[in-house]
Amino acid sequence: MNKQYEEVDIRRIADFHNTLSHCPIHLFGLKREEKGDYIFTHSSGAMHDARGVSVKPAPGTKLYDLYSKDLVSSWTSQIEKAFSGQMQTADIKLADQTLRTTLYPVSGENEEIHEVVGTSYILSKHAQPQVIQDNKFKQLFNHALEAIVLCRSNMEIAEVNERACELLELTRDKLIGENAESFFMKNGRDVIRRKWKEVMHGNKIRGEFRYRTPEGYIKELEYSCEKDIVDQLHVTILKDITDQKLTEQKLLKAETLNVVGELAAGVAHEIRNPLTSLKGFVQLIQNQTDDFNQYLSIILSEVDRIEHIIKEFLVLSKSNSQNFEKASITGIIRDTVDLLNTQAIIKNIEILTDVDEDIPHLFCDPMQLKQVFINFIKNAIEASSIGDAVEVNIKTCRESEYVQIQIRDYGCGMDEWVLKKIGKPFFTTKEEGTGLGLMVSNNIIKHHNGKLDVQSKKGRGTNFIISLPLNQEK
Predict the structure, then answer these.
(1) Angstrom distances, CA of residue 238 to CA of 197, 246, 360
(2) In angstroms, rounded to a whole number, what is the distance separating the alpha carbons of residues 449 and 443?
């Protein structure tokens, strides 16, 4: 080899070659002439021309003699960076093959870069080089509990362990050779590109991103990246935090309910007394004169609305103190339907009921469950158009030990963003709604150890599914 190559980190090239021992490798040197030509100073091993044919250029051969000027011009930027002192790695498409080339700058006594040496090999996605050679380390890597991904400087995935394949739900062959940023959803790609530059400067980075699985499910993942854990490879550790995020959301919602419940008790009692006095005096004035009857009626109407809000607040604050007893769920539903039938008939809406036979009695608070059913059936009637039907079905799920009540309408339905927000305090799509009805109902169901599911599509209606345990003793 030319004596100038003594300036190169020969050990790094040798180590690099060891990882690629199963495939042909080309070692070469390039010099730059004043007019911009790149001249081969040395060549050993297999090289491939633009047609993928193996050739061995003699010293003095120009790069333009083997490749077109357009192709060489596409490499010029990285070759020039190598001549400025930066190691470069590039993947070059030749025919139906990909040629991976790494360029190492060589400096002389005056520290000027006078030559670039390089290595090239044909990259096969299905026969990737093993980047981890030590068998013990490889076993530790593959059986680690954390999902580990090794990336090259250009963010190309060089190796993954078994846990990473499970987490990303892709095989090793599907992952290796892909660019890591492609697993980030659109908004996250710009962020990871900026952060990856920090990794290349030696900084350790952490963050979170959303990942869409091949089946279309969304996972929340946490990542941490660090440079040069393995020579020229950078480690990324992934962690699934989807359940953690869901738990945080539930805790936040529970905290909100607690705060609203505490607020409800205080506010309701503070407002109720002066409101009672106000309502009494307005009614007294109304009985004594007809002069301002129109305005007094409006005032009483608004006072009644305030009282309605206070009642819902009080139910929310007292939802922990319930009067449980054995009661017929079918009887509670029938009473509710009879109560709301008049409102349905006015809108020319039919309430259809379908009840399983022999549904056992539930241990529950009948008055609170009745309030839940009133809220949902009333909402269904209000969401329906003239001539529609509201369906109320009760069935027993013996295998899951639950009784299921479905209240379905075929009205306007809800958008996905609305569906995510329903049940939050003071969120409502009604002009005169308070946003507390569904939250109160959901709270009652939870204190009965039940669960509520809501299914809705815009223009196709809404289905409230309430599941209550059959065998429950308090």
Answers:
(1) 19, 18, 49
(2) 10
Under 8 Å CB-to-CB from 401, ≥6 apart: which residues?
Answer: 469, 470, 471
pLDDT at 421 over 80: no
Q: Where are the domains of the chain?
A: 3-123, 135-240, 245-317, 325-469
In residues, how long is the chain?
A: 474
Instruction: With CA atoms as reference, report the closest residue to 119 among 87, 148, 73, 144.
Output: 87
Residues 363, 404 contacting (CB under 8 angstroms): no
- Residues 99-136 pLDDT 10s: 778 888 887 767 778 888 888 777 654 444 445 555 66
Record: fold of 325-469: Heat Shock Protein 90 (3.30.565)
- CATH no., domain 245-317: 1.10.287
Tokens coding 158: 């060089």
Q: Can you read off the two tokens belonging to residue 309? A: 């809000």
Q: Is 135-240 the same fold as 3-123?
A: yes
Retrieve residue 299's tokens. Answer: 């005032």
* Helix ranges (DSSP H) in 159-218: 162-168, 172-175, 186-200
DSSP 183: G
Q: Which CATH class is domain 135-240?
A: alpha beta
Q: Which comes out higher in pLDDT, residue 49 or 287?
A: 287
Structure tokens at 147: 């999902």
Strand partners, 31: 39
Residue 269 CB contacts under 8 Å (≥ 6 apart), including other chains: none
Which tens digits make up the pLDDT trace of 153-168?
A: 888 998 899 999 999 9
Closest CA to 373 of 269, 465, 299, 292: 465
Q: Are 407 and 373 in contact (CB under 8 A)?
A: yes
CATH class of this structure's domain 3-123: alpha beta
342, two tokens: 């008049």
Residues 414 and 292 sit within 8 Å (Cβ to Cβ): no
Q: In degrees rounded to 5, what are phi and psi of residue 190?
A: -65, -40
Residue type, 423: G
